[in-house]
Amino acid sequence: MKIQQIFRDPVHQELFERDGYVVIDLTSADTVQEIARQFYNINESVPSGFSSGATIADQQVKDKLFADMDAALQADMDRAFIHYKKLGSTFLCKAPGENSKVNVHQDWSVVDEKRYASATVWIPTQAVDEHNGALRVLPGSHLFFDKYRNNNIPISYRGSEEMLWENMFIVPMKPGQAFILNHAVLHASPPNMTDKERLVIAYGITSAEAGLAFYYKAATPGSPVEKYLMPDDFFLRYHNIGERPLFGDKVQEFPYEVPAVSGEEIYRMIQAEKEKRRNIPYFREHWLKG
Ligand SMILES: O=C(O)CCC(=O)C(=O)O
Prior knowledge:
CATH architecture: Sandwich
Radius of gyration: 18 Å
Distance between the termini: 36 Å
Structural class: alpha+beta
Largest sheet: 6 strands, antiparallel
Strand content: 25-35%
Number of domains: 1
Number of helices: 7
Order of helices and strands: HEHEHEEEEHEEEEEEHEHH
Bound molecules: 2-oxoglutaric acid
CATH class: Mainly Beta
Shape: globular
Helix content: 25-40%
Oligomer: single chain
């Protein structure tokens, strides 16, 4: 079954469905640089390592940040997306230093991924590359596994993280561009080894009609997965990340096992994705060289 369209441009939709991500020209450098000022209004100093505004506990601060970002970007978002809804937005900051590396991961599963995509619209406020923390991505990997994803739910690719990192490639970007990544695609980012923080605006989006769910699992081994139906502002309100949500409608609880997929099998999947793109000049140049 095909997932619901969220991009206005059918070419963007096609690339997003094939690769699990697409990079588009979303807005102007001036717009994102203006929004970036807000970061310094709400942070007296730059938090160390990698930090997300999602963990801010003060709801008013988060709501205002989303409202301000959205006022600046609404027209650009509406030009790029169709039949969609926004799930909130915030800043992702990478302070200078080794400890700002983001390891290989997929984002939480929050919609029925057979019918809909949920995605992050990742908008750097400055040029990004391998030195200051651009994204690394594994094209096509959004279709590798079909398990629920959340903190504490075991990952299908455990033991293969290093191979996955090695097989990703980095995507340098200019301010005003947007990297729209399906929450299921494998991605990561290197540490920021420059002396200036890297600041990104991140929106959550999904299809207008998609219902949201959150699959919580306690850290205790053997604990069941608890399914919560969530309101559309769930990303904006959930701040005790990794802990049981304090809101939402718990509708199910069930035992859940995630078998590890072997390194050989994952290697085969990666090679198949590379093979599919062997004749595409962009991937030949950036991913398949060597
Ligand atoms: O901003 C980054 O460097 C990584 C962001 C990321 O991986 C995420 O939001 O899931």
